[in-house]
């Protein structure tokens, strides 16, 4: 039987998934680039956008894990030819997710100042953080809803409509950023940092409306809540909880990095904001092949087609490495112009250029981790992903982070810790996949 794991099939999923995946970091990058060039308090605005962006990313990643769980279950049922049996599950999962997101939103709104004081924000930066977050946080449930709908489409082996939603949101955000941050003479007064927050919120609202409409028009999945509770909801919740703990560990690393960078001074948090946004952009760019592995891996597991599953893992790692090499070449060639897109402050740029090479060198390591991470999510291996992240964070990242502080490595110490973190994650996934699926391959 001819293999379905072809370059054409992988790219038909990976390329739209890449475009969809970079939408969220692109929103943050747009804010960072535009905010960093604000004529009034640009450095403080850039620092505030970075601190708030990191905190919001943590919230979104922690609760956005339902997307992967929904995608894994739907794709496995699709592969087994039993999709009809799981049609009531998505609505139940989405309503549960939205309820949790609203609960967390309301719980943070009343302690905003305390949250950002814990992240070492103070003075004018703290006030900007509070103002910016007070607007952007209302897009949090909308983003989680969009993520869940994208998970449904992915489970159905469709990455095209998520791409359309993402492109629309990203383009709208860029246009609104320019209009609201800098203003239009005689029409719109400049809103500066608050304008960036409103631009993101409006873009997220439009994306949520599109997601709802496309799900209704393009699938047979209903968002009408029906009972009884689906038997798979328990497995979905356990998967999500494992990913929830994993995301907490992941964001512990991200938040500690922001805290350490903030403690180094304004120019360093500005430089770190640029660096982390570019790191996340490359992560989501590479993650398109991880998404293809997620989507196809779940279906192949449902079919018990272990030969193609093994072939899939090999191919998407290879293609992902190719993409990372292209990103490395572009980064080396456009080293300085990339920095100047975000800030014209020489102190910020010098600090950024001092660590950018570490990010570039780590791209192939990141690729292996991100791509296999996607495959493991599709296979439902959430417990192993959780344990791997806990080990990488608490036995790798955190010790090196504090060692770097003790030895006076500055911002470079933070990015050395990130590189080791990704090396542990990628290595553990390679070992697990070989040990689990090579015997299955040989027995079939």
Automatic annotation (TrEMBL):
The keyword Mitochondrion does not apply. It comes from Maribacter flavus. InterPro entries: DinF-like (IPR044644), MATE_fam (IPR002528), MATE_MdtK (IPR050222), MdtK-like (IPR048279). This is Multidrug-efflux transporter. Keywords: Antiport, Cell membrane, Ion transport, Membrane, Transmembrane, Transmembrane helix, Transport. It is found in: Cell membrane. Pfam families: MatE. The chain crosses the membrane at residues 46-64, 93-112, 132-153, 160-184, 196-216, 236-257, 269-295, 316-335, 347-372, 384-403, 409-431. The keyword Membrane applies.
């Amino acid at each position: 039987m001819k293999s379905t794991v072809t370059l054409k099939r992988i790219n038909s999923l990976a390329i739209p998934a890449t475009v969809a995946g970079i939408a969220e970091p692109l929103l943050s990058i747009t804010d960072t680039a535009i905010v960093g060039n604000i004529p009034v308090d640009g450095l403080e605005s850039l620092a505030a956008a970075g601190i708030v962006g990191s905190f919001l990313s943590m919230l979104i990643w922690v609760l956005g894990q339902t997307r992967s769980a929904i995608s894994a279950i739907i794709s496995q049922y699709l592969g087994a030819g039993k999709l009809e049996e799981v049609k009531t599950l998505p609505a139940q999962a989405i309503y549960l997710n939205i309820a949790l997101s609203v609960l967390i939103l309301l719980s943070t709104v009343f302690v905003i100042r305390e949250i950002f004081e814990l992240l070492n924000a103070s003075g004018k930066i703290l006030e900007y953080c509070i103002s910016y977050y007070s607007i952007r946080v209302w897009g949090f449930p909308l983003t989680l809803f969009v993520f869940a709908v994208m998970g449904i489409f992915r489970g159905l082996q469709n990455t095209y409509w998520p791409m359309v939603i993402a492109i629309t949101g990203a383009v709208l955000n860029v246009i609104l950023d320019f209009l609201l941050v800098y203003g239009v003479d005689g029409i719109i007064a400049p809103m500066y940092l608050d304008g960036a927050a409103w631009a993101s919120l409006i873009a997220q609202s439009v994306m949520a409306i599109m997601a709802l409409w496309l799900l209704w028009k393009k699938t047979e999945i209903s968002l009408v809540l029906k009972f009884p509770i689906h038997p798979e909801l328990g497995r979905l919740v356990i998967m999500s909880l494992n990913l929830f703990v994993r995301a907490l560990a992941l964001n512990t690393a991200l938040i500690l990095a922001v805290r350490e960078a903030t403690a180094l001074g304004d120019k360093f948090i500005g430089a770190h904001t640029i660096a982390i946004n570019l790191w996340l952009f490359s992560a989501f760019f590479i993650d398109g092949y991880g998404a293809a592995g997620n989507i196809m891996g779940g279906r192949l597991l449902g079919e018990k087609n272990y030969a193609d599953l093994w072939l899939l893992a090999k191919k998407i790692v290879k293609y992902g490495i190719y993409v990372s090499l292209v990103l490395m070449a572009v980064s080396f060639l456009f080293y300085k112009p990339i920095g100047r897109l975000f800030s014209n402050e020489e102190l910020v740029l010098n600090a950024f250029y001092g660590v950018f090479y570490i990010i570039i060198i780590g791209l192939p390591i990141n690729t292996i981790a991100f791509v296999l991470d996607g495959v493991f999510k599709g296979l439902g291996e959430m417990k192993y992903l959780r344990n791997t992240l806990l080990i990488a964070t608490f036995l790798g990242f955190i010790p090196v982070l504090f060692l770097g502080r003790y030895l006076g490595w500055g911002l470079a110490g933070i990015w050395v810790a990130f590189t080791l973190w990704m090396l542990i994650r990628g290595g553990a996934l390679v070992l697990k996949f070989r040990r689990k699926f090579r015997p299955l391959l040989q027995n079939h």
